[in-house]
């Protein structure tokens, strides 16, 4: 039993020393955290929408390009009547330029209204 009690501190010391070694061959990407906003306007069939960037799932294709499936909180103007709507659709980002294609469900006509437009991304 005496040998076992003297072996435990040696094993723990070995684990601590092993945990302190670093692997310098592995490349680690720095963590970046920040806020990103987008403001845009899109046009469709007798429709204008003023959009802001909402939540999105983004796939970065490089340092300048990314594609996303996004939600667009918007002020939708249909037949000269403005109403708040949430659109959904793809977006393509190139640096600060954003191409958007949001779709909005219109309750009165029971159809989807597709729009296309452009926006500006700011940080």
TrEMBL record:
Protein's recorded name: Outer membrane protein beta-barrel domain-containing protein
Originating organism: Chitinophaga caseinilytica
């Amino acid at each position: 039993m005496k040998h076992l009690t003297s072996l435990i501190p040696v094993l723990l010391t070995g684990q601590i020393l092993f945990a302190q070694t670093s692997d310098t061959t592995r490349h680690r990407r720095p963590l970046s955290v920040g806020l990103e906003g987008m403001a845009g306007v899109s046009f469709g069939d007798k429709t204008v929408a003023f959009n802001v960037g909402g939540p999105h799932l983004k796939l970065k294709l490089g340092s300048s390009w990314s594609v996303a499936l996004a939600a667009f909180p918007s002020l939708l103007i249909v037949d000269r009547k403005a109403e708040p709507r949430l659109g959904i659709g793809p977006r393509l980002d190139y640096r600060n330029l954003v191409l958007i294609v949001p779709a909005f469900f219109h309750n009165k006509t029971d159809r989807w209204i597709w729009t296309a437009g452009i926006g500006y991304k700011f940080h």
